[in-house]
Amino acid sequence: MKEKLYQSLIELTNGRWSSSLLRRFALSPASKRIVPSFAKQYKINVEEMDKPLEAYESLHDFFTRNLKSGARRFDGEIDMIASPVDAVLEDMGSIQEDATFQVKGKVYSIEEMLGGKKEAERYLGGQYMVLYLSPSHYHRIHSPVDGTVIRKQTLGSKSYPVNRWGMTLGKSPLSKNYREITEIEYEGGRLALIKVGAMFVNTIERTHTGDTLHKGEEIGYFSFGSTVVLLFEKGRFAAAQVKTPVPVWAGEILGTYR
């Protein structure tokens, strides 16, 4: 009953008009007035930002902020996979041979998430990671490896919440929401980096051009809360031994490839 009520309320408020209104406000000069209270509410570390609070011209400008040089480090050995974002590592585990994995009691289809059976086959028996970005996080996305972009695709039109309520009660947001897929070929094989939009604002901006990626290089940014899903091929990735959920920083080591 609670799940049906939640889903009904989300459907009622998740239309184009509400998304458009919120985006217009966030981009407007009027939203600048709430930037200080937003930063305080979400306990954002203003010391690492590349400019002072008063220099941000809108809430969107602040939300997509850059950090000072060196605030995030992408060091480590070449065989180490770095977190592409500041986030909470909500879940990780094995992708089943039927091309599914489970998060918060929801079964997700890799075939649906990637847009086809052929695209999903490569990751059968592999590993997945779900990285949730709240409004408090730095929302720039970086490459987790040195590699070459071999596929880009945009799928989905929904924008269900991707927070814990959304993941628990929503309609499979990871595989139904608006999302951008980037598949990267690297020394350890191939991985899929899936950028999932969130409620109200399905904005995922690409900032990287070309096909060559260097670990730590910026590839884009989110507007408002979002999620990144990483998929790894079978036998190619060994995850760090952590208990989820756990906070991670962009550049932090998530595991190694074989």
TrEMBL record:
It is an enzyme of class 4 (lyase). Its main location: membrane. Keywords: Cell membrane, Decarboxylase, Lipid biosynthesis, Lipid metabolism, Lyase, Membrane, Phospholipid biosynthesis, Phospholipid metabolism, Pyruvate, Zymogen. It catalyses: a 1,2-diacyl-sn-glycero-3-phospho-L-serine + H(+) = a 1,2-diacyl-sn-glycero-3-phosphoethanolamine + CO2. Signal peptide: none annotated. The active site is at D86, H142, S226. It is found in: Cell membrane. Is synthesized initially as an inactive proenzyme. Formation of the active enzyme involves a self-maturation process in which the active site pyruvoyl group is generated from an internal serine residue via an autocatalytic post-translational modification. Two non-identical subunits are generated from the proenzyme in this reaction, and the pyruvate is formed at the N-terminus of the alpha chain, which is derived from the carboxyl end of the proenzyme. Its cofactor is pyruvate. Pathway: Lipid metabolism; Phospholipid metabolism; phosphatidylethanolamine biosynthesis; phosphatidylethanolamine from CDP-diacylglycerol: step 2/2. The modification Pyruvic acid (Ser) is found at S226. InterPro entries: PS_Dcarbxylase, PSD-B, PSD_type1_pro. Pfam families: PS_Dcarbxylase. Its EC number is 4.1.1.65. One of its GO terms (molecular function) is phosphatidylserine decarboxylase activity. It is a peripheral membrane protein. Heterodimer of a large membrane-associated beta subunit and a small pyruvoyl-containing alpha subunit. Belongs to the phosphatidylserine decarboxylase family. PSD-B subfamily. Prokaryotic type I sub-subfamily. This is Phosphatidylserine decarboxylase proenzyme. It comes from Pradoshia eiseniae. The lineage of its organism: Bacteria, Bacillati, Bacillota, Bacilli, Bacillales.
